[in-house]
């Protein structure tokens, strides 16, 4: 089955998201959401594939000619010529590990942004003198 399982899973995730959003919203926002969800999934898959190739082989765009034809035969970017490679990164378990690391990084960035936003909001509240204590005379 090779590549077909990941394609089916990705397709199901996109369709499930589109279905849950489209039922509750008018057509134009549903189309816009579908477009940006597709672009988001594409970006994540490209980043995930690039990271796996970089860690697994030490290259980028290796064998790009298989996708883009003979014109792409020389597109390979070798980051380190003496890199021994890391086989786990290019195997299916490496994809799960890399995806888990990407999700952990996103959660870390979200948490930092929320804390920064919360501290800025608290600082603005203190500076304005409105501490929310509710004291009345």
Structure description:
The chain is mainly alpha-helical and 137 residues long. The longest helix has 37 residues, at 92-128. It has five helices and two strands. Strands 1-2 form a two-stranded antiparallel ribbon. 69% of the residues lie in helices and 3% in strands. It has helices spanning 4-22, 27-57, 65-68, 87-90, 92-128, and strands spanning 59-60, 77-78. The protein has one domain (4-128). Helix 1 (4-22) runs antiparallel to helix 2.
Main attributes of the structure:
5 helices; 2 strands; extended
Distance from N terminus to C terminus (CA atoms, Å) equals 75 Å
Share of β-strand residues: under 5%
- The whole-number mean of residue pLDDT values reads 87
- The total beta strand count reads 2
Largest sheet at a glance?
2 strands, antiparallel
Class from helix and strand fractions: mainly alpha
Supply Rg. 23 Å
Low-confidence stretches: none
Shape category: extended
Largest sheet, spatial ordering of strands: 1-2
Number of domains: 1
Helical percent range?
Answer: 55-70%
Succession of helices and strands: HHEHEHH
- The tally of helices reads 5
